[in-house]
Design brief:
- The chain has 366 residues and is mainly beta.
- The chain contains two helices and 29 strands.
- The protein folds into two domains: 203 residues, Beta-galactosidase, Chain A, domain 5 (Distorted Sandwich), CATH 2.70.98.10; 138 residues.
- The protein is elongated and about 80 Å long.
- The chain starts with 15 loop residues before the first strand and ends with a strand.
């Protein structure tokens, strides 16, 4: 299914909108959040039965030269096999017949530029953690490239997306690039996520740095509370992913629709940062594991009269800000430090299982 060149002068038009792309009522992930939805229904008898949720995110900072585009591909009800998905881009930078494409495999980044002096650079980087497939095309078919000017067939498109053919660079001319993933199988009603950053740079080094920033931005976990207070609901996080033991989590001051709560459930993070006036409530039989540092500002922080917080890192850990925790278990041979100016109140048990708790601030035991 695609919307791109076909037999000249035609385009394939296999996608049709279900919900037009619109800006979200409240921007929660970036400075401008866009959402839409489309399906392959226009393909008629050739449709395979998928809906695609489209999300795009942009930032207003002058030093943020990228937008992130995310697609969630969902089967409408049948098991699907040998799927591949990706994005084709026809680049035109300055004088288009002087353009080239190259690939930075270490970054999963394809980029284009003009051979003219002081050309800007542009590219797309795979952000989701799949194995990328690359095809750099000389669009006129020169130097062994697939020819896009004649009948650009479905088989050729699939080969480019799925890694059936790989081409990492072009010669100079009218060029394009395809960044794909797959093939993969999709069970009935299951979904698959694919995300890229469109990146610009003043030169190659700037482009690479921008792509690194985009990658870090995409894998940050920022609480939005968009759907509910439930910590383990993916709809409450900026990229619709609940943080895990290897992830840093941030609860910002705003915009936060609902304050986070962990109730009769378990969660784990690396570093946890809570910005005033936001508060994380831990209740019931919950266990919250922190293997990095706990940072809170102002009156923001953890507030619990039930549940357990385990500090179980393998490197020295610190606690900052104002926090009220019911039960703390120290399970770290390198120890945990309550920093200067920090106020830690423990209204239940304090269990030192490994290491120690060093207090350099205020420690209240109730």
């Amino acid at each position: 299914m695609d919307n791109v060149y076909a037999t000249p002068p035609n385009y394939d038009a296999d996608w049709g909108q279900i919900n037009p792309v619109r800006r979200r009522a409240i921007d929660v992930t970036s400075d401008k959040d866009l959402y839409g939805k489309f399906s392959d229904a226009p393909a008629g008898g050739n449709a395979i039965g998928v809906n695609v949720e489209h999300r795009a995110f942009g930032w207003a900072g002058l030093d943020e030269k990228f937008v992130i585009v995310e697609y969630v591909v969902r089967s409408n009800g049948a098991d699907l096999s040998n799927l591949a998905c990706g994005i084709f881009t026809d680049w035109e930078i300055l004088q288009s017949n002087l353009n080239m494409v190259n690939t930075d495999g270490a970054r999963s980044l394809m980029y284009a530029y003009s051979t003219e002096p002081q050309s800007i650079y542009a590219g797309m980087r795979l952000l989701t953690l799949q194995t990328p497939n690359y095809y750099a095309s000389n669009n006129n078919g020169s130097n062994g490239s697939i020819n896009l000017y004649d009948a650009f067939t479905t088989a050729e498109k699939y080969s480019m997306l799925s890694g059936g053919q790989t081409r990492l660079t072009t010669t100079m001319g009218d060029i394009g690039s395809t960044l794909g993933v797959g093939p993969f199988n999709l069970a009935a009603a299951d979904s698959f996520k694919f995300a890229v950053a469109y990146v610009a740079g003043d030169n190659l080094a700037d482009l690479q740095a921008q792509s690194d920033t985009a990658f870090v931005r995409y894998w940050n976990h920022v609480w939005t509370g968009w759907e509910s207070p439930v910590w383990n609901n993916s709809g409450n996080w900026n990229w619709f992913r609940v943080p895990g033991v290897n992830n840093d989590a941030l609860v910002p001051a705003s915009p936060v629709i609902n304050q986070p709560a962990l109730t009769n459930d378990n969660a784990a993070v690396h570093n946890l940062t809570i910005i005033n006036p936001s508060v994380l409530t831990i209740a019931g039989t919950s266990t919250f594991d922190i293997n990095g540092n706990l940072v809170s500002t102002g009156n923001g922080g953890i507030n619990s009269t039930q549940g357990v917080v385990n500090f179980n890192g393998i490197a020295p850990q610190t606690i900052s800000g104002i926090n009220t925790i019911h039960q703390i278990n120290i399970i770290n041979t390198q120890g945990v430090t309550n920093n200067p100016n920090a106020v830690l109140t423990i209204n239940g048990p304090l269990n030192i299982q490994q290491g120690d708790l060093t207090n350099k601030g205020t420690l209240n035991k109730e």
